[in-house]
């Protein structure tokens, strides 16, 4: 059976990154003296607002919200406990060693996650944080400094407010002709009959430099151009706004914009109270702490945060609303999905474009009203129908539009590749960091006897937790194989350490794709074992990206780029000439949610040897099982995650793809018209790829397609033939867990953290 893991939907789309290169102590430049009664003013200010605007979301002045946050005291003992808990979870982050000492191909600053957390704890213990807000902001910035959409933790100080500024909310980045470097405009000005004046400064700083610096602090994308694109509205990202316009963190009391024509405008910022937040009875920062930051307080609320965790928890559902013939922002399709609003097909019109088909895939995940199996089967049939119609219509060239695709179900990415090129083998090579707790979990699960007798309700819950976990199949034989297809004969084969970058990892592994299921079969397996031949030749296919392609999107894209030399064209990026990365979202292979890690830790302590219970409870597993950090999250139901698995290219077994550069073959900028007319973008892709690249690509951006490179010999670990449903070396319980993982969802979260 195929495990329906999600690798991310621009999972964990985190914000807030720090500019340091190692692990310095947080810089406390001054102690902020906040109004001691600022929090007491929130409730009457909210009541006054609602009296005048009864149906609106309550807002207050941004400066008042910030003063309230700065009055919340930092408490050293709970702070220490929070950091200790986070340190245990952070050990599962697969990229720690490369983040601390990245290769030259990585374009962002180094960061020592473990060291930074230790310094935050020490700073709190010495009383050098002005407030709980400063303490938690330092934690948040530490997570985001990884620039990894799978690595995130949003602590509880952020339950109350989001910061906004209306003046900066509609800024877009557009070029006059697609080659000239873009300028910044208000989108409304571009739609008016008057001549728009470009924005040259933000808060007195050069506008582009200001945005880039904020991106470096606040964006989870791992490349400056993808960070830039993630800030601006396009047809694929209609709700996007600059960090200074929508942020989790305070960005100042106002925003001032300066224009090319010399005009200057200033507008006050405001704070939005998050859904479910109640300030009644809060008279001080101490009250705020007890209401929002004390998990033991009976009155502590849980704010409602809509995430894909809640969406993917539904195994079945029905789309009730009438299906629109089009997807928002896109033209009328020849075919579209049945409710996820993420997959659709088009045929281009006009001279020179008659033979071009476009498959737009903005996500590999289901919508809130679509169940997992419903999404996967519909995605499969939508792609199949698109290819069939393309063949009938005689289409010869294909654009796969991946703009704003943050990922989703891994199997969906493999499914798309399998339908496009059914005769091409899909390479996989991943590994996991050997955290002590992961090693303990693997060995304890492996030691459970085949005839294990569940004798207590607690043991039954523990077995259920292991059976529903997305983690377990990665560390037992039968759940994963070696990259070349041979089986692991024991857990110790999987744990046999591979040393990279001064750290230890599991053996390289791959998820079996040839298993069958009554519910869903990947194209090329089971009931779909004889797929039709490819409709498009590799040289007639191009990937369109804006650099934000992440997680499952990267798995699919690298199969295309590295395996078949598929061309890529990138759109947008910073206002400079030159090349741009095509793939620059998170490039990890799988996300592990903190809640899943905690549940598995609790389960193995419960099921483990009685003689080891005290040892396990008092060690890293016990800290994970307690899950104090989860209780201190903005939403404990979706507290955060780590990147559990590195992804490697076939020619490089030393450096995860997260730290390598993959430039596009061509780049052009958005024009104003392209923001709302994707067909103009697609026509430009055709011209830039096949018609006249020299005339259509940004100066210095044309890169020759990389030829396929030889397989790294480190991946050739065995000459054994591929095995199907191998069970050698696994206990009865671990075999059962492996086979029930077919419906496991690695839930991931798309947060703009505003």
> In terms of per-residue confidence, which ranges show pLDDT below 50 for 5 or more consecutive residues?
8-32, 298-321, 718-732, 734-754
In helices, the fraction of residues equals: 25-40%
Mean pLDDT: 88
Shape: globular
Q: What is the CATH architecture term of the domain at 335-427 and 521-587 and 653-696?
A: Alpha-Beta Complex
Number of helices in the DSSP assignment: 24
Give the quaternary arrangement of the chains.
Answer: single chain
Describe the largest sheet.
7 strands, mixed
Our estimate of the beta-strand percent is 5-15%
CATH T-level fold name of the domain at 335-427 and 521-587 and 653-696: 2-enoyl-CoA Hydratase, Chain A, domain 1
Q: Spatial order of the strands in the main sheet?
A: 12-13-14-15-19-20-23
Number of strands: 23
Structural class: alpha+beta
Keywords: Signal
InterPro entries: ClpP/crotonase-like_dom_sf, PDZ_CPAF-rel, S41A_metabolite_peptidase
Pfam family, one: PDZ_CPAF_rel
Signal peptide: 1-22
Can you give a write-up of this model?
- The chain has 754 residues and is an alpha+beta fold.
- Among the domains are: 204 residues, 2-enoyl-CoA Hydratase, Chain A, domain 1 (Alpha-Beta Complex), CATH 3.90.226.10; 172 residues, no CATH class.
- 31% of the residues lie in helices and 12% in strands.
- The protein is built from 24 helices and 23 strands.
- The strands form 6 sheets. The chain has a 7-stranded mixed beta sheet, with helices on both faces. The chain has a 4-stranded antiparallel beta sheet with strand order 1-11-3-8.
- β12 and β13 form a beta hairpin.
- α3 packs across α20, α14 crosses α18 and α18 crosses α20.
- It is globular.
- The C terminus is likely disordered.
């Amino acid at each position: 059976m195929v495990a329906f893991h999600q690798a991310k939907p621009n999972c964990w789309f985190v914000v807030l990154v720090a500019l340091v290169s190692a692990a310095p102590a947080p810089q406390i430049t001054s102690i902020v003296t906040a109004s001691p009664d600022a929090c007491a003013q929130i409730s009457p200010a909210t009541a006054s607002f609602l009296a005048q605007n009864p149906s609106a979301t309550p807002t207050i002045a941004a400066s008042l919200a910030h003063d309230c946050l700065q009055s919340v005291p930092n408490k050293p003992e709970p702070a220490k406990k929070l950091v200790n808990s986070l340190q245990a979870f952070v050990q599962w982050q697969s990229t720690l060693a490369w983040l601390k000492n990245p290769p030259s191909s990585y374009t962002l600053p180094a960061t020592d996650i473990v060291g930074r957390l230790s310094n935050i704890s020490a700073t709190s213990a010495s009383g050098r944080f002005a407030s709980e807000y400063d303490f938690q902001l330092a934690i948040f910035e530490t997570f985001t400094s990884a620039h990894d959409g799978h690595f995130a933790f949003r602590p509880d100080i952020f339950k109350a407010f989001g910061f906004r500024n209306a003046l900066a909310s509609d800024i877009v980045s557009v070029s006059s002709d697609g080659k000239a470097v873009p300028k910044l405009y208000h989108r409304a000005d571009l739609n008016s009959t008057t001549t728009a004046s470009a924005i040259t400064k933000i808060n007195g700083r050069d506008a582009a430099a200001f945005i880039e610096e904020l991106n470096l602090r606040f964006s989870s994308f791992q490349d400056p151009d993808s960070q830039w694109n993630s800030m601006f509205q396009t047809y694929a990202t209609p709700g996007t706004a600059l960090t200074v316009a929508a942020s989790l963190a305070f960005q100042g009391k106002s925003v001032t914009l300066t224009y090319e024509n010399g005009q200057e405008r200033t507008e006050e910022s405001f704070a939005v109270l998050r859904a479910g937040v109640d300030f009644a009875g809060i008279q001080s920062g101490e009250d705020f702490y007890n209401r929002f930051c004390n998990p033991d307080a009976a009155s502590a609320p849980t704010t409602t945060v809509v995430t894909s965790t809640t969406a993917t928890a539904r195994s079945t559902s029905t789309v009730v609303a009438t299906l629109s013939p089009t997807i928002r922002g896109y033209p009328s399709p020849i075919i579209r999905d049945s409710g996820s609003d993420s997959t659709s097909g088009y045929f281009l019109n006009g001279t020179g474009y008659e033979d071009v088909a476009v498959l737009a895939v903005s996500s590999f995940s289901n919508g809130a009203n679509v169940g997992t199996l419903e999404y996967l089967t519909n995605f499969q049939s939508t792609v199949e129908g698109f290819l069939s119609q393309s063949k009938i219509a005689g289409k010869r060239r294909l654009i796969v539009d991946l703009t704003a695709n943050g990922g989703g179900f891994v199997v969906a990415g493999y499914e798309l590749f399998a339908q496009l090129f059914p005769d091409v083998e899909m390479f996989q090579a991943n590994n996991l960091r050997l955290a002590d707790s992961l090693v303990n979990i693997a060995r304890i699960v492996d030691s459970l006897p085949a005839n294990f007798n569940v004798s207590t309700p607690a043991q039954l819950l523990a077995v259920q937790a292991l059976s529903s976990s997305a983690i377990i199949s990665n560390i037992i034989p039968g759940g994963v194989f070696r990259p070349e297809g041979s089986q692991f004969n024991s857990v110790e084969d999987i744990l046999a350490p591979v040393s990279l970058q001064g750290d230890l990892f599991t053996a390289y592994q791959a998820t079996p794709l040839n298993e069958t299921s009554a519910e869903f079969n990947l194209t090329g397996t089971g009931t779909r074992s004889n797929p039709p031949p490819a409709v498009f030749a590799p040289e007639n296919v191009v990937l369109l990206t804006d650099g934000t392609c992440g997680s499952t999107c990267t798995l699919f894209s690298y199969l295309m780029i590295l395996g078949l030399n598929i061309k890529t064209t990138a759109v947008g990026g910073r206002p400079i000439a030159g090349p741009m990365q095509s793939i620059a979202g998170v490039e990890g292979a799988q996300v592990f949610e903190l809640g899943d890690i905690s549940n598995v830790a609790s389960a193995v302590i419960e099921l483990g040897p009685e003689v080891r219970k005290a040892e396990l409870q008092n060690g890293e597993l016990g800290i994970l099982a307690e899950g104090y950090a989860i209780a201190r999250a903005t939403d404990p139901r979706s507290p955060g995650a780590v990147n559990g698995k590195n992804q490697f290219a076939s020619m490089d077994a030393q450096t995860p793809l997260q730290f390598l550069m993959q430039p596009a073959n061509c780049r052009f900028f958005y024009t104003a018209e392209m923001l709302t007319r994707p067909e103009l973008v697609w026509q430009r892709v055709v011209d830039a790829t096949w018609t006249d690249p020299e005339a259509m690509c940004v100066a210095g951006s044309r890169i020759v397609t990389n030829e396929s490179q030889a397989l790294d010999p480190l991946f050739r670990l065995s000459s054994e033939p591929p095995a199907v449903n191998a069970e050698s070396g696994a206990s009865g319980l671990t075999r059962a867990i492996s086979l029930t993982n077919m419906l496991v969802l690695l839930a991931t979260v798309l947060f703009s953290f505003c």
